[in-house]
Amino acid sequence: MKSCLIVDDSKVIRKVARHILETMQFDVAEAADGKEALDHCAQSTPDVILLDWNMPIMSGMDFLRAYRSSVASPMAKVIFCTTENGIGHIKAAIDAGADEYVMKPFDRETLEAKLQIVGCI
Amino acid sequence: MSTTQPKAYASLSALLEKHTGQTLLANRHWRIDMALKPLMRENSIPDLDTLIALIEIDADPRLTSACVEAMINNETCFFRDQANFALLTGPVLDMLREQRMSTKKLRIWSAACSTGQEPYSLAMALQENAEKWRGWTIQIIATDISTSALAQARAGRYSQFEIQRGLPVMQMLRYFDQNDEDWVAKDNLRRAVTFSEHNMLQPAPHFGKFDVILCRNMLMYLGEDKRVQVLDAISSRIADDGILMLGAAETVIGQTQKFKSSPEFRGFYEPMTRAATQSTMAQRRFG
């Protein structure tokens, strides 16, 4: 079973994403900000991380930079999943090491296709 | 509009079938509700019965046409059925490349292309392997029955929701520009595809023969006789050693004697004439 860490400060988004991922047979964990996500990744590496951009304590970008510069091995695939839809944000996310990018709102098919693209389905 | 109007649905279903051959199954009646509301609002038509009455007396041909357009299923996405699409752009095209090395010409027909995601996906896949196809003349012809879908396809303009359905972010950045909330195909991508309006139930357009024909997720909306008609039309336009790709839930088996399953590529079909051609060639070679 593949595993996914959902990193989002919105409980509702986490709940929706969890529901979608569980129907795809993912083992799902949650974190409410980048710091929590880093702590989680220090314990275990998920196959894929669904990452929000704007979060308190530690943003998605700060998490991604810290995570990609860590010695974690193997590295999880990271899919940004955010309301930030400007091309500048998308390019910055890719430069920082994101594997894919989903602009909210999204549906199950969109997420499923992105998970296929990063090789997690 | 309530869901207890079987007469209205039957009328609209018949209208759709008359103009496109598509049948509207009962489990998709909700689609009529969604599709026609904006049209009715725009034309100040109070209810479904009035709309049907106006169509029946042919009050305005544009209204009939708009009504049909609104009911056509334009569901599509980039790189739809990823695994099968990868088979097409990988091993299938590699095989055709080998077979056509002497002419270095490849002609592809994306039939029932809807809003263009399929032919653009093909064009992107080919451009990703530009080195391999250097010196080749590749034509991608894309057709659809819907004027509005084709207008969007030609413009190459997609909403945020549409652009990220199936399209990897790197290709989105490489082949599209952001324009307000939309994403617009760059010129080199748009130039790679020629769009044309065509009803698959009409005689096949005089585009010549094609090496690859894609007709995905369209046959499934047709009645049996119409499916045969479309497959016949496709068979007249496919090269003897060409290949047909259908949707993941579609098949030619039990539908036509003009095509058979490809022995090499699951989900792909080849003309019956292929075996005859190969057999004749073999006889010439060894006879």
Describe this structure in words.
The complex is a heterodimer of chains A (121) and B (287). By secondary structure, chain A is of the alpha/beta class. Chain A has a single domain, classed as Response regulator (Rossmann fold), CATH 3.40.50.2300. Chain A has helices at 11-23, 34-43, 60-68, 87-95, 108-117; strands at 3-7, 27-31, 48-51, 77-82, 100-103. A 5-stranded parallel sheet of chain A has the order 2-1-3-4-5, with helices on both faces. Chain A is globular. The termini of chain A are close together. The mean pLDDT of chain A is 97. With 287 residues, chain B is α/β, with parallel strands linked by helices. Chain B has 2 domains: 6-71, no CATH class; 82-281, Rossmann fold (3-Layer(aba) Sandwich). Chain B is 45% helix and 18% strand. Chain B contains 12 helices and 10 strands. Chain B has helices at residues 6-20, 29-42, 48-56, 61-71, 82-99, 117-128, 147-155, 160-163, 169-175, 187-190, 224-235, 273-286, and strands spanning 105-111, 137-144, 157-158, 176-179, 182-185, 193-197, 210-215, 238-246, 259-261, 268-271. In chain B, a hairpin with a 2-residue loop joins strand 4 and strand 5. In chain B, helix 2 (29-42) packs antiparallel against helix 4. Chain B is globular and about 60 Å long. At the A-B interface, helix 4, strand 5 and helix 5 of A face helix 9 of B.
